[in-house]
Amino acid sequence: MAGPDQIDTTVDRTRPASDLDADACSIAATLAVIGDRWTLLILRDVFRGVRRFGQLQEDLGIAKNLLADRLAKLVERGVLERVPYQERPVRYEYRLTAKGADLSTALIALMGWGDRWYAKDGAPTVLIHQACGTPIEQSVRCPRCDEPVNPGKIKSRPGPGRSTP
Amino acid sequence: MAGPDQIDTTVDRTRPASDLDADACSIAATLAVIGDRWTLLILRDVFRGVRRFGQLQEDLGIAKNLLADRLAKLVERGVLERVPYQERPVRYEYRLTAKGADLSTALIALMGWGDRWYAKDGAPTVLIHQACGTPIEQSVRCPRCDEPVNPGKIKSRPGPGRSTP
DNA sequence: GGGGTGAGTTGCAAAAAGAAACCGACTCAC
DNA sequence: GTGAGTCGGTTTCTTTTTGCAACTCACCCC
Questions:
Q1: Is B49 left (phi over 0), alpha (psi -120 to 50) or beta?
Q2: pLDDT given for residue A136 in this prediction
Q3: Which pTM value belongs to this model?
Q4: Which pLDDT value is given to residue B105?
Q5: Residue to substitute from A7, A51, A56, interface B, most B β-carbons within 10 A
Q6: Which residue has the higher pLDDT, A9 or A121?
Q7: Residue B44 — φ and ψ, nearest 5°?
Q8: B125-129 and A154-158 beta bridge pairing
Q9: Nearest residue (Cα to C1') for C25?
Q10: CB under 7 Å from any atom of strand C: which residues?
Q11: Average pLDDT for chain A
């Protein structure tokens, strides 16, 4: 029986293993793109304005071969784009595409969790609304009821993209 | 200059490399706990109600030694707890602690990104508000202005937990 | 005693990560 | 136009991590 904190998915426990596949699970699909030891840290830096190879390498302490590899994959997958920021000599920087920028939600969520459970003296970094300086909040809401929904009140069900064999 | 999609952090570009450290960055702190190839998939399954060793192993296709190792670490770090679900023979299952359940925000965000960028025929799974059946929405809002804030309007600044040397 | 199940260990080969040296195009100071 | 320096990577080699298969252990049912 699902406890109060579990997302109740009793609806669909008839399906077997293949739920894992990227096709059938958007979490798996996402992790296939950003789910390794370095990629999210690279993206965090790009969000913060660190966009050049050398800066990233120094800031993260990542091996250069791995950084080169990860950046190439992120470009290939449309999360970053490699654009020249000067000619003579040509130098490139890595920018977020719209798809990359759309990961901010996830980064904010991960940061929030770290803040709540590991920042004993308060958050090391606070995200604020540029216009008014107020710390922002992330929430899960029901648009119909117009109220916040906590994890125990969420149910999942198969969506239109699910192939039902 | 930060483009419209970048979170502007020009405030604090004076600091050097060590921002990476888990102490100084809550994203790094979070990734230190859940940032490997399998952990988030394990947690996704636990959220969905898959809680036993054998079920997890079959559903994910993960090697048993890795599953044992990841579960032990998650228990050690207070994300899951191992509770007997029957005596004679004693069998255990893994449940989310409050800390683990609090990761739902992040899982929802990752799922949302996968839905938006990889689910060509629509989301494979839809999360709905249990009470009314409406699909839920996740948003970043400014509590003062009481309006949604998009990534380009977010600024970051050092918080109280930042050690400023 | 024999067979089955759940929840793991152990051992070993293959893949990925990490460190460090190397490379090539270019600039700038002299 | 030569030497030193920078940026953005490759190459090579060593160390960790994975992944797979076989094995164990406690218990249950017959």
A1: left
A2: 97
A3: 0.87
A4: 96
A5: A7
A6: A121
A7: -55, -45
A8: antiparallel
A9: A89
A10: A 36-38, 61-66, 69, 88-90; B 52-55, 64-65, 68, 71, 82, 91-93
A11: 85
